[in-house]
Amino acid sequence: ALQVGDTSKLLQDVAQPLTFWIGLFILTSTVGLAKEYVLWRVNNQVSVHFAQRLSKHLLRWSQQRYNKHASGHIIKTVDGGWDGIWRIIDAPFGHLLPPTVSLITVLVIGVTIDWRLTLISLLGLPISLGLAHYSWKKATPKQQKLSQSWIDLSRHLGESINNIRVIQNFAKERKRERQ
Q1: Per the confidence metrics, is the pTM higher than 0.85?
Q2: Residuewise pLDDT in 10s, the chain (179 residues)
Q3: Distance from C-alpha of 164 to C-alpha of 156, rounded to nearest angstrom
Q4: Percentages helix, strand, coil for the chain, rounded to the nearest 5?
Q5: How far is it, in rounded angstroms, from Cα 32 to Cα 109?
Q6: What are the Cα distances from residue 30, in Å, to 39, 81, 128?
Q7: Taking the mean position of all CA atoms in its chain, how far away is CA 30?
Q8: Which residues contact residue 138 at a Cβ distance below 8 angstroms, ignoring those fewer than 6 apart?
Q9: Is the CB of residue 128 less than 8 Å from the CB of residue 29?
């Protein structure tokens, strides 16, 4: 209709692709929100597992092994590992791949159908950004609570490492006194 200049049947010609396009947008937004939630849950589960395994592992170290590493270095390494877990899972799968694939798909399909439909479909972009902002605002307090828990765990781990050193040194000193 647009190519021949007859706009009387424009709505009938555009209704089916436009409905498909809107459905695709809603599906993409819903899957995107579900993906964010799943990634958040997976990261939390991996972090809890990491913290449990780390605590068990560090508490089994001998005095000689503790003497090789400063407690600050151990805590810094642990924090780096925890940050790495989030970055490895979240960066490529959570922030780079989905928007890139969505944008390329929208542009290619839109230009294939009609470039004007592409412009119309991009009108939904503010809605998508608004939904992303809303989900980010909802997840931020929970993430801050998790981060605070991690800080508390790191502090407790550092104190435990220092206490183990003191106890082992005290036991070593008492053993020397007996000899």
Answers
A1: no
A2: 556 666 677 777 777 777 877 887 788 778 777 877 887 788 778 877 877 787 777 767 776 776 777 666 777 777 777 777 777 777 776 667 777 777 787 778 778 777 777 787 778 778 878 887 888 888 888 878 877 887 787 777 777 777 777 777 777 887 888 87
A3: 12
A4: 90, 0, 10
A5: 19
A6: 14, 31, 10
A7: 17
A8: none
A9: yes
CA distance 64 to 165: 10
d(CA 14, CA 113): 10
The structure tokens listed for 96 are 């780079």
- HSE value, Cβ hemisphere, 13 Å, CA-based, for 81: 16
- Which residues, in sequence order, are CB contacts of 165 under 8 Å at separation 6+? 63, 66, 67, 71
In the chain, the amino acid numbered 97 is L
Do the Cβ atoms of 154 and 78 come closer than 8 Å? Answer: yes
**Amino acid (1-letter code) at residue 110:** G
Residue type, 100: T
